[in-house]
Amino acid sequence: MKVLFLCVANSARSQMAEGLARTKGGFFEVVESAGSSPSGSVRPLAVEAMKEIGVDISKHYSKAMSVFDLKTFDAVVTLCAEEICPLVPAPCRHLDWAVEDPAGDFPGESHEQKLQRFRVARDAINAKMDAYIAENSK
C-alpha cells in the first residue's frame, strides 16, 4: 500500500505517522508525509517522543503536499483535528484520522507536559494505524 500522511505544517503528526508506518512490517510499501502549509522543520518534541519508542525521525524534513501527485497513492490520510485540513482531491481514497495537534506553547508548561502531548498524539496515531492494518489484513 502506498500512503501519504497529511496535516497542515508537516512538523509533528504526519511526521510521526510516517515514522510509525515504516515500522509496520511492510504493510505500507511507500510511505510519505506532507503539509498544506509546511513549517520547514520537524518539531524536536515529535522527534523525542518517537525516539522513546525506538523510531528515529530525526532525518525527516517538512515537505509541501504539492511535491506529490496525490493520485499515485492508494490512500491519503489526514490527521487534522481542530484546524482546517488540506483538501484531498477526488479520486484519491481519503482517510480521516483526526488527532489533536500536540504543538503549541502554553505559558508555564514544563518540558514534560509538552512532551506528554506529543506522546498522546503518537499513541493515538499508532492505535488508528494498527486498527486500520488489522481491518485491512484479512
TrEMBL record:
The keyword Acyltransferase does not apply. This is Arsenate reductase ArsC. Residues 1-135 form the Phosphotyrosine protein phosphatase I domain. One of its GO terms (biological process) is response to arsenic-containing substance. The keyword ATP-binding does not apply. InterPro entries: Ptyr_pPase, Ptyr_pPase_sf. Keywords: Arsenical resistance. SUPFAM superfamilies: Phosphotyrosine protein phosphatases I. It comes from Chloropicon roscoffensis.
